[in-house]
Write a structure and sequence with these properties.
By secondary structure, the chain is an alpha/beta fold. It contains 13 helices and 24 strands.
């Protein structure tokens, strides 16, 4: 008789963490029980070795085709950015504060790309004055704001055009192309956008930015998007009459959050790159370009856990509720309120692997029925003081959440590396 496949949580723990002989979950070799005792709960814990493993695996998979930068929005803590900088990554940022965080983490300004549909004049002054490597233009008003900032600073700014592609390039769990969008210039107005940039003496058009979708778990979907991106890049190069220097194909690489999600097959991704590499080689206007992937979730997500302590366990009309000190104010995505249409459970586990498991609702301390971390989590019998951990929490956790809601204190963030833990954001009071 064949054995049933392990559930997602069991698989993720085996891939990224471990349990000791007593069943306690360890991150980076340190027991979460000890970390929770030292730094309090709720608590975010990140494993630096896990960050490095994810980066190295992806870099190896796309070697010969693209370089890998880090999308800071996924987790903008400078200590996390620094780990990826040490691995050789540049940074993609979406605000002036993220620019400062990346520079503070050691990333040279010329290795930083600025994307986002609503860049303010103040942020543009900040990054242009700081010597940013490239700004990705998303609309006409922004084009003129960047040109004005370049004029004020007496410099020429390297820019790329973000293109909102046609329907043929869509894909991933969240479509960002093939429909009306605030992101980028529509593909239909590519010629006009190129001409508008070329008329600005302080702007130097060097590349393309394409981001057709996010949370992509299928290699063929990503490969199709990237192939389409190369076609658009060739069009821009032809219109400018000079080779492109940068082709930013975005991030969009997904990680499994829910039961039934498949892990992205890096082997299939690598095997499918040969035609794309050949496309670059055959076109002299693209052959010298730096092709960039800038994932965030894929690199940071699996290395993090969110730890919460049980405050109470109650039974209400046949249902079990585990009430914790952590919730949607720190981890909006896990609550299902960060853009999900159908709310599904992130993998949630007991930090101490007790016997038995039955479905229960894990809810937080906020006075709203939206504050639910899991709706049918298979957990053992728990009691006040026990710990639960939300896996896949290294990306879009704390800074993607309404931390001021109901004025609960900020949790600490801890980075574990080499068997030692360091506070990278102090716990609030």
């Amino acid at each position: 008789m064949s054995q049933a496949a392990p559930d997602l949580a069991t698989t993720l723990i085996a891939e990224n963490f471990s349990r000791d002989a007593t069943g306690v979950l360890h991150v980076g070799g340190l027991p979460l029980t000890d970390l929770a005792r030292s730094y309090g709960t709720p608590l975010f814990v990140y494993d630096a070795d896990g960050l490095r493993r994810a980066y190295r695996a992806l870099r190896a998979a796309v070697a010969g085709f693209a370089e890998v930068d880090y999308s800071v929005k996924a987790n903008p803590n400078p200590a996390v950015i620094h780990v990826f900088h040490e691995e050789g990554a540049g940074a993609e940022i979406a605000s002036g504060a993220e620019f400062d965080a990346a520079v503070r983490a050691g990333v040279p300004p010329q290795r930083i790309l600025f994307a986002g549909p609503g860049k303010s004049a103040a942020d543009l002054d900040r990054v242009v004055g700081g010597g940013i490597g490239e700004i990705h233009l998303e609309n006409r008003e922004e084009l003129f704001r960047v040109a004005a900032a370049a004029e004020r600073h007496g410099t020429t700014v390297r820019v790329a055009l973000r293109i909102n592609p046609g329907a043929t390039a869509q894909g991933g769990a969240m479509r960002m192309g093939g429909k009306p969008s605030p992101f980028g210039f529509d593909e239909e107005e590519l010629s006009e956008a190129v001409a508008a940039v070329e008329r600005q003496p302080r702007l130097h058009l060097v590349g393309l930015h394409l981001f057709a979708g996010t949370q992509g778990l299928k290699a063929d979907t990503l490969l199709g998007q990237w192939a389409y991106g190369l076609e658009l890049a060739a069009q821009i190069a032809k219109k400018t009459g000079r080779p492109l220097e940068t082709i930013d194909l975005g991030g969009g690489l997904g990680i499994p959050y829910f039961s039934g999600d498949a892990t992205l097959d890096l082997g299939a991704l690598r095997d499918g790159l040969l035609p794309l590499i050949e496309t670059l080689r055959r076109n002299p206007m693209l052959a010298g370009a730096r092709v960039v992937l800038e994932p965030g979730r894929y690199l940071a997500g699996p290395a993090g856990v969110y730890v919460a302590r049980v405050l109470a366990v109650k039974h209400s009309r046949g249902s079990r509720f585990v009430i914790t000190d952590g919730g949607m104010h720190h981890h909006l995505a896990a609550s299902g309120n960060l853009g999900q249409i159908v709310k599904r459970d992130f993998p949630v586990v007991a930090v101490s692997d007790l016997d038995g498991a039955t479905p229960c609702t894990v809810s937080g301390p906020l006075c709203t029925p939206l504050d639910v971390l899991a709706r049918a989590a298979p957990l053992p019998e728990l009691s006040e003081g026990d710990l639960v951990a939300v896996l896949q929490s290294g990306a879009y956790g704390l800074t993607a959440s309404p931390t001021g809601f109901l004025s609960h204190p900020m949790p600490a963030e801890v980075l574990v590396e080499g068997g030692r833990a360091a506070v990278i954001r102090a716990r609030g009071d």
